[in-house]
Amino acid sequence: MTVFATGDEAARTIDDLIYAGATIAAVVDLRPQSSEVMRHAAECAGASLHQGSCVIRAEGTKRGVTAASILGPSGRSTIACDLIAMSGGWNPTIHLASHTGCQPVWSPPVSAFVPGELPVGMHAAGAASGRWSLDLCLADGIAAGSAAAEAAGYAARPMPAPRAEPEPSSHAPQWRVRGARGKCFIDFQNDVTDRDLALAEREGFRRAEHMKRYTTLGMATDQGKTANVTALALMAELTGRPIESAGTTTFRPPFTPVAIGAFAGHARGRHFRPTRLAPTHAWSHAAGAVFVEAGAWLRAQDYPRAGERGWLESASREAANVRSAVGFCDVSTLGKIDVQGRDAGTFLDRLYANTISSLPVGRVRYGLMLREDSIVLDDGTVARLGEERWFVTTTTANAARVLQHMGYSHAMLWPELDVQFCSVTDQWAQVALAGPRSRDVLERIVAGGADVSDQALPYLAVRAARLGPGVPARIFRVSFSGERGYEISVPARYGNWLAAALAEHGAPFGIIPYGTEALSILRIEKGHPAGGELNGQTTAADLGLARLLSTRKDFIGRTLSFRPAFLDPARPVLCGFAPIDRSAVLSAGAHFFEPGAPMTVGNDLGHMTSAAYSPTLGHWIGLGLLSNGTARLGTVVRACDPVRGRDTPVRVSPACFIDPEGTRLRG
Length: 667
Known about the structure:
FAD/NAD(P)-binding domain; six-stranded antiparallel sheet; 17 helices
């Protein structure tokens, strides 16, 4: 590859190319003397540096580039390469300002058009106003934000800009390569050349709008983003006028053209929405996983072995192994939201039914979130990573909904709170490590013999750590299975590495991966509510979580939780169910009736929300919502599933089947 550039921004591209594994043969810098940062980038790439030079021709055939012809102070030379990357600098995105009628103005220091006199209440900051380096962008953003706040009637507090090293940004604008043989293209999509512009000038089409229509320059999908400024500079050169006198084209919304497919209708079939792959997908595929669609995600359902007769046998083996030894499961699909700010604790207190702000740094708490009508919206964990930083997890299905709920609550209900939040679901790979031997495995993968004992990392704690060769990680002591468990988070690019490391270091302890079916078995055995129970109709009391409703603070859904219908003792509540005949199969969706009662709507007592075969108990079990369920504990009802032809007597029990005291998960 050959990199041809006119400024220091190319140095960052060179670094990115090296990181991606590209081989760079030459760096061609148009400036007579390259900057130190450019020289350093070329040296790190092991590339020859050609100062005061330009690429005058791409050699090759229709099949691709074979070499770059370079013209420099010492004459012509040829560099063998299969790709030429080139850059003449940056242009600010000024379309939004232009849509308001603001006329762009030419800025010689950045060799680009920047917003001119902006309308009242509008501010341009950072790269949008021609400030390229991070330190200038941060300072400019704070100044513009303060001005906007004051214009809106708020007193802006002085705020120091975050520290950022100044970035070199020198450049030498070059509008076309002189001495080149053949055509000199200006618009690479519509094949407009410098000769086409010269013809337009001779024919009298000199103004920007006329030149555009005469040559079709800037009319392709990029809408002039790569060609317009260069063309205006050349027209100014041809007419002997300054570039600003050539004018600019009229920017009309939309900034990016709308695809025809958007007008044609909704996507169809597999293209309805893109499939999302978990960070450990490649490892799971190599391990023989069978995948299942879980919303937009493709998750490992189970890891079958030779001789096993279907998913149930595989999932039962995996669940049993977690109970007796150790297993690991990718839970990266859980929603992850980073919440920061001085008022973050107050904000979370108002969103969650239980108190969050009292959580000490380094600890985790189960959180329950209600809708305004007091129906359960979602549950998950909240970890406090610092005095003003929190990490929220949500269920996979409700990740987007919870983020939307947070955004609405902050923007419309409490805009005065100093809090910021964003989804980091895709930034972290998260793997659950569960089972009696899970700590033994964890001790083997943490770097430097870090202490992960029960004293250093107790139940519902979180700590930062390094794994293996120094991979940054967060370790959460939480459990969805009811066994001793940890959730290990690493940057998403290390997901496959983490799965491989757990499999390798856990081998002496009998570790195996487990999929979503085993995960479901484990959570039903433990009585954890999930999708079937969080169906948009249940309250905290229905799920046995009324104790989480704080009586010391207000929160979304608190007032309507006292409606008479929600306090009715006959209301269906979460219970456990086991068949009287231990060989009987239970199925989600079955409805409950009194023994001998006709199967009519008037006699319906509720329904089974989840069911699974429990390898620990040796029979099927289920969770369900049963009318007056607390008073019916120990009694027998019928689970009727006319679709599958089942009418099964079941005994009502508490929802938790395994270790109700919680001694296993606490260690």
